[in-house]
Amino acid sequence: MTERYAALLRGIMPSNPNMRNEKLRGVLEGLGYERVASILASGNLTFATKSTDPAVLEDRIQQALSAELGIPGGTLIRSYPELRDLLDRDPFDGRVHERGTYLTVTFFKNDVIEADLSEFADDPLTKVIGYDHPTRAFLTVLDNSTGVTPPFMGRLEKIYGKDITTRTWLTVQRVVKKMES
């Protein structure tokens, strides 16, 4: 039986010809994965496979991306049940993704035993919702209504390293919808 997964790729720039969706899909198809699809143009792929070890999938996909397309970034895998459960629990408590409430989910490659939720207390443009252990994700609401980009991503990398990738809540919803089709 096959399982459905999302590959969330780090550092994808669609302007780079090697990072376009058709090439990214081609790498996963070349690995023998089924039902490969892309969502938006920012490194979101869904696929099905019999393999059920996310760490093995991450390594295998990242090695292929590096060897075939020269993409050094990072690959984070989440299963359909993990992402579906996150959506069903609605950790943003009904907030709507819009200019003043830009909902973000930062996925971590590894679990964080204790996320420092106070790290952004001094940033009036960033509200930390919390850390979600089941999906290994940091949940935040960014205020983009001022025209000033919050320094959130840089600070998050400085604290937790580069084995992370951030998606909007809308993108996570689109990924799950694609996994269900």
From TrEMBL:
InterPro entries: DUF1697 (IPR012545). Pfam families: DUF1697. This is DUF1697 domain-containing protein.
